[in-house]
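Journal club prep — side note

Before the paper discussion, L.F. wants everyone to see what a predicted structure for a comparable chain looks like in token form. Sequence:
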Amino acid sequence: MFAVFDKHDAPVLQLDFSADSKYVRAVSTSLQLLACSCLSGEEVPLNTLNDVAWATETVCVGYEKICLWPDEPDGDPVVATARRADTMASATLNGALKVQAYPCIDPDAAVVSVHAHGGPVACLNYASDAALLSSGSLDSLVLKWAPTPAVKVELPPVVDDAEDA
């Protein structure tokens, strides 16, 4: 980055660089999402970056992450995210981890959720072996969540006893 970008209204919490290193987007502690050019430092309207590929996915707000957030304003807020291919992991202030399909725009999409930490999650990231790493702020734990293949369970057919009578 060759410039200074000082438009946020609060301290910056998370930032992402575009895959081509032309842009950076950042979210502040007040959840203000802004983007700028890495060369000039000039603000770039977010709607002009819809087709930009991002090298990282740590910013926890944005259209493609709308379904990560609770419906209630006082719900458990998202504090960390990480993306690997078409999967998004998110973590909350109360220590919950969720994994779902990316982009997270379908409110009815399947979500795997687990209460992982005894307080806020400080950071999430995927390791090179596809495991998800999570670190807790208060519990001082770093947890490694290994991916497991889906298991197909075949149940025996249901027999209706009324038909046998």
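L.F.'s comment for the group: The mean pLDDT is 86. Keep this in mind when we get to the figures.
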